[in-house]
Amino acid sequence: MKKAAFKRVVLKLSGEALQGRLGSGIDYDVIASIARQIKEVKSLGIEITIVIGGGNIFRGIAGSSRGIDRVSADYMGMLATVINGLALQGALESAGVFTRVQTAIAMEELAEPYIRRRAIRHLEKGRVVIFVGGTGNPYFTTDTTAALRAIEIGADVILKATKVDGVYSSDPVKNKKARKYDTLRYIDVLKKGLKVMDATATSLCMDNKLPIIVFNLQKEGNIKRVMTGEKIGTIIKG
Fold first, then answer.
1. What is the pLDDT of residues 125-182, one digit of tens each?
2. Are 88 and 118 in contact (CB under 8 A)?
3. Considering the chain, what is the average pLDDT of its residues?
4. Domain hosting residue 51, numbered range
5. Which terminal residue of the chain has fewer beta carbons within 10 Å of its beta carbon, N or C?
């Protein structure tokens, strides 16, 4: 049996990852697959937290470009992450994985408030903790949420699940000659303007020496591969 490469991780899921081939909304086959994979790696003793986006339902910056006040649009995006988090919780618990959803925006009937010590205690008890509601503040992305929560709870790494198999010099869909990076330094990500995480999130990781691994979520089994240290995707550090 493979051994865990990390003790505690933050798995960053974009909202778009949950929509699968639907174009928007939630593809329940996708979240069922994620739940199966997380259940498998939980058996290795890894403490798992998940930060989830809301772009499959509503993206704040897109809403603001259509005339919605930016602050209101960002809050709408945060609410979309709550919907995704509850859907993922349902899939995980159907698979037999105990979970807690913690939100940065108070909504007591749906989820616990984010409390760092409580989140860590849940992890120690073997529960998966899903962080929703972003940071609770407009103008910050869920990438920044992932970096912030990872630092707060003492995670070993951020595992950023995407639609591609790593970081490329340009969009590999539009440019067939785009070069894939196996490793990158934080400063190179910032200088080259690579679309890995936003600059705030990347800077937070750089300042706190928190590695980021970007990998393809759409290939079944990749969650286990990355959590057991298999060399897939792109690692950002140093």
1. 999 999 999 999 999 999 999 999 999 999 999 999 988 889 998 888 788 888 999 9
2. no
3. 92
4. 8-236
5. N
Q: What is the CATH number of the domain that holds 131?
A: 3.40.1160.10
Burial of 87 (0-12, 13-18, 19+ CB in 10 A): middle
Residue 43 resides in a domain: yes
Is the residue at 1 inside a domain? no
Farthest CA pair distance, the chain:
54
54 CB contacts (<8 Å, ≥6 apart)? 15, 77, 78, 79, 80, 81, 82, 83, 84, 142
- Judged on CB neighbours under 10 Å (0-12, 13-18, 19+), 5 is middle
118 C-beta neighbours (distance < 10 Å), count: 14
* Helices 142-153, 116-124: crossing angle, 10 deg rounding: 70
How many domains does one find in the chain?
1
- The predicted model scores a pTM of 0.93
What are the helix (H) ranges across 44-185? Answer: 60-65, 70-94, 116-124, 142-153
The predicted-structure confidence for 20-65, as pLDDT tens digits, reads as follows 888 889 999 999 999 999 999 999 999 999 999 998 898 766 766 7
Token output for 54? 């809301």
The residues with which 15 forms a beta bridge, in sequence order, are none
* 2 domain-assigned: no
